[in-house]
Write a structure and sequence with these properties.
279 residues, alpha+beta, five-stranded mixed sheet, five-stranded antiparallel sheet, 6 helices, 10 strands, 19% helix
């Protein structure tokens, strides 16, 4: 009894798929029908299958092969495998399948003129607040966010807790602190050293609350003493890159101690500094 060899599946073919707003390398399979190809192209280009006009360029300089839109082609054409229509043996990764939109310009995607506010839909704040099917209305009904009746009391409790923690740990302006780290007393615990320059409420960060402004010994911070929005809470006294020495942290991340000052050269003393060649 003779055995028939199993049918072979044609390998995928890579080519460039382009449209007015997209360009990417994609793989197509010769067994796909034209209608299946159009359906897959919709997810890539945003153009509905019935509005796609396809041009295939085997090379950048070759004449295109036209695949008419589905509205102007027969149903038998749309169900024909690509292997029967396209010169697949000539396709390479530099071949281009260009997808055009046959719809009127007013109905096509417009992703380029995003700064034209006249074309954007704007809902008045009063109208939005009056709607009952919005996220805002849902938050009101569920008592979430600023509509939570207990939110203000929890904010005050957190404020008192942070203030008490700062007082108990002795975090006051002028103290040396270790910020973060593993909680140990050794230099290798990963903390950052610096001076406390501010202790108090900062409304611009993390929903407000009690924060500690620290001037770090090294330029490994996030700011120059100003909170997001530009309001200044403390000044950087060290020379050098002032914009990277400031940081705001919660009191629980600070450890007060007689921490040795760290400089940008890894804590070297004056004798080691004198031994460096000037460059």
């Amino acid at each position: 009894m003779s055995h028939q060899p199993p049918p072979t599946t044609a390998p995928d073919i890579s080519l460039q798929v382009t449209s007015p707003h997209t360009r990417s390398e994609r793989r197509i399979n010769p067994s796909w029908t034209v209608s299946l190809l159009r359906a897959k192209l919709e997810f890539i280009t945003g153009i509905p299958p019935s509005c796609q006009s396809l041009l295939l360029f085997t090379t950048p300089d070759s004449a295109p092969l036209n695949l008419p839109s589905s509205s102007s082609s027969s149903s038998s054409y749309e169900t024909t495998p690509l292997s029967s229509l396209l010169p697949l043996h000539q396709l390479t990764s530099s071949s281009e399948l260009r997808v055009s939109d046959t719809r009127p310009a007013s109905m096509q995607l417009n992703l380029l003129n995003t700064e034209d506010e006249s074309a954007q839909f704007v809902l008045d704040e009063a109208d939005y607040a009056a709607r009952t099917d919005s996220v805002l209305a849902w938050k009101k009904r569920a008592g979430l966010g600023r509509f939570d009746p207990g939110a203000e009391e929890r904010r005050r409790q957190a404020l008192r807790r942070h203030e008490e923690e700062a007082r108990e740990k002795g975090v006051v302006v002028g103290k040396r602190v270790m910020v973060g780290g593993g909680g140990g007393e050794e230099e290798e615990d990963g903390g950052r050293r610096g001076w406390v320059r501010f202790v108090g409420v900062v409304d611009e960060i993390g929903g407000g609350g009690w924060w500690v402004g620290v001037e770090l010994d090294e330029p490994v911070g996030r700011n120059d003493g100003r909170a997001p929005g530009g309001r200044r809470y403390f000044d950087i006294e060290a020379e050098g890159d002032k914009g990277k020495r400031g940081v705001f942290v919660r009191p629980e991340r600070c450890r007060v101690g007689e921490w040795e000052v760290v400089n940008d050269f890894g804590g070297m003393d004056d004798e080691e500094m004198d031994g460096l060649e000037e460059i």
